[in-house]
Fold this sequence. Notes:
The chain is α/β, with parallel strands linked by helices. It is 47% helix and 18% strand.
Amino acid sequence: MLPTSVSVLVVDDSRVAQKRLAALLEEFGYQVVGLASDGAEAVGKFQALRPDMITMDITMPGMDGIVATRRIMEACPSAVVVMVSSHGQEAMVLDALDAGAKDYIIKTVEKETLRDTLQKIVIRHILKPSRPA
């Protein structure tokens, strides 16, 4: 599976951050299938679109990203949620991972690091290469 066949839902309450991340994902070869501005919208769009991966902000009005991640994981335990937030506090990272997020990326990360991290997530959680017996 090439990145072009990996569909992504981008969730962030900032339209600027949504557009920036969506543009980078498309540049990396991913297919951005939807945008959401809060957790409730993210849950609804996940159910409608069933993307391969969700990039999820934490701090949003209404339902935050951690609650949205829990709801998505309850509905679909195999969902691949990656937290992308400006918050790097250890407690938030642990809460996000406890909610079911597969990884955590700080928004200010370098472009190449973002690309490499997402590629590792895709290999580990979406492609799931078979291991020799």
